[in-house]
Fold this protein.
Amino acid sequence: DTGVSQDPRHKITKRGQNVTFRCDPISEHNRLYWYRQTLGQGPEFLTYFQNEAQLEKSRLLSDRFSAERPKGSFSTLEIQRTEQGDSAMYLCASSRAPLRVGQYFGPGTRLTVT
Amino acid sequence: DQQVKQNSPSLSVQEGRISILNCDYTNSMFDYFLWYKKYPAEGPTFLISISSIKDKNEDGRFTVFLNKSAKHLSLHIVPSQPGDSAVYFCAASAQTSGSRLTFGEGTQLTVNP
């Protein structure tokens, strides 16, 4: 069990650029979640997948954000036309549905938009 | 609308003593509650959880208590160790919402040697 991995760990980009993050969940986990965390706050839910189906999106996920999980394994989160307000830690988590157990988080990708 | 609230941003205790972290929630649909620990530059680490059909769950030094009528839960750490110093997040989920987690703001626990 290698845990949840995320790439890159840090990303600095200029306002207006597009960025893409990758998440590799724990291999036997069929659910994958994306959260965003800003300083002094807890993580906020963005979206989640069960296998390759995106089942729910938060209203925080504006049209500039898109997430995919094409084969039900890894997932990507893309932010288009980044804004300074997008600066945050982007966290990925996975779990095995339908078990009601804890979600296991990756180390996160810290995005800084200058 | 903050559905999960941790009113204490920080807590400081002596090594060997009990640490009690508190959490309140407002959404009566929440039926599963979790505590996570977070070190700087790492993702949250799952600690312990409790279903709404229980009022207590224990795992080693960690015990979570749930008071459904008060919509309150707490995490007890006994005895506290310096390595427990971290930010602790309370989280809640509802069966009806695909198990997405709603987090509190976190409490910074410092355990002094």
Remarks:
- The longest strand of chain B covers residues 86-93.
